[in-house]
Amino acid sequence: xxxxxxxxxxxxxxxxxxxxxxxxxxxxxxxxxxxxxxxxxxxxxxxxxxxxxxxxxxxxxxxxxxxxxxxxxxxxxxxxxxxxxxxxxxxxxxxxxxxxxxx
Length: 103
Prior knowledge:
This is Cell division protein ZapA. The protein has one domain (4-77). It contains three helices and four strands. It has helices spanning 25-45, 51-68, 77-102, and strands spanning 4-11, 14-21, 70-71, 75-76. It starts with a strand and ends with a helix.
């Protein structure tokens, strides 16, 4: 188990102290920079001014980008997750059917 460090950040004029494992501190700071970039982009467009709405829009943008990320052989993350979910459901169904056949 790694040690926890307190990381001070500021987003949308608000101060946050976040606990993070030492070996994940840089990743957390990179995530903060990514979020700041999305926030700046939204603020530059000037359509959304409320801090809560800006934060939600930035989070949705990041989530959308993540789901569009290509994995493996060019498969989009969302499609990849659907395929895994479908395989899991098929395995659960087959297991239930085989258990019913045994009893």
